[in-house]
Design goal:
heterodimer, A: mainly beta, 7-stranded mixed sheet, 4-stranded antiparallel sheet, 11 strands, B: mainly beta, 50% strand
């Protein structure tokens, strides 16, 4: 079962709101990822967690705050976002440590609209 | 510098036609991995294939086939007898050794939109 789930599917928020995106996998994977994808562009890596520790932060603004409560869950806390943050946010997981060559399995994404 | 080039922005075909998607990559590493993903309108990236740099055998999976040629740094993807359900954006991606902290990162190509009409 190669399933990664994400909630919510759609989210509309104002620039002063605080919201969270959730991601869950039950494949026993130890690495989890957040990507941001704008329309007609490839996904852009934001964060990588390996064994529940943040291993990569791609210079993402602090209004995005990731959290990995356990090996199955990954959250992305959103605060004071800008309209240009509107995008599809994808979560992914891979088996081991987030090392080269690991297949990443993606969730369905959360479509975020910031007004 | 673009490490993965998918020169075809969009390809339109009629159902049952074959379609080939080009992927050209650039790396100085001897060990690397190449991937193809499909992204239908629903948004999820669906894993299709993973190939390491030491395995140049072509692969066939149902109507899908892949041609890996290290000599030309290409990893092309062919859909045979296309169907409407094949309509999606297809991404080629590279995972290379590079710097230690870059392990696991994918270099995605720009993607190719495939439109299959009945």
């Amino acid at each position: 079962d190669t399933e990664v789930t994400q909630t919510p599917k759609h989210l509309v928020m104002g620039m002063t709101n605080k919201k969270s995106l959730k991601c869950e996998q039950h494949m026993g994977h130890r690495a989890m990822y957040w990507y941001k994808q704008k329309a007609k562009k490839p996904p852009e890596l934001m964060f990588v967690y390996s064994y529940e520790k943040l291993s990569i932060n791609e210079s993402v603004p602090s209004r995005f705050s990731p959290e990995c409560p356990n090996s199955s869950l990954l959250n992305l806390h959103l605060h004071a976002l800008q309209p240009e943050d509107s995008a599809l946010y994808l979560c992914a997981s891979s088996q081991a440590e987030g090392q080269m060559g690991e297949t990443q399995y993606f969730g369905p994404g959360t479509r975020l609209l910031v007004l | 510098a673009q490490k993965v080039t998918q020169a075809q922005t969009e390809i339109s075909v009629v159902e049952k036609e074959d379609v080939t998607l080009d992927c050209v990559y650039e790396t100085r590493d001897t060990t690397y991995y190449l991937f193809w993903y499909k992204q239908p309108p629903s948004g999820e990236l669906v894993f299709l294939i993973r190939r390491n740099s030491f395995d140049e055998q072509n692969e066939i999976s149902g109507r899908y086939s892949w041609n890996f040629q290290k000599s030309t740094s290409s990893f092309n993807f062919t859909i045979t007898a296309s169907q409407v359900v094949d309509s999606a954006v297809y991404f080629c991606a590279l995972s290379e050794e590079g710097a230690t902290d870059s392990w696991g990162k994918f270099q995605f190509g720009a993607g190719t939109q495939v439109v299959v009409t009945p």
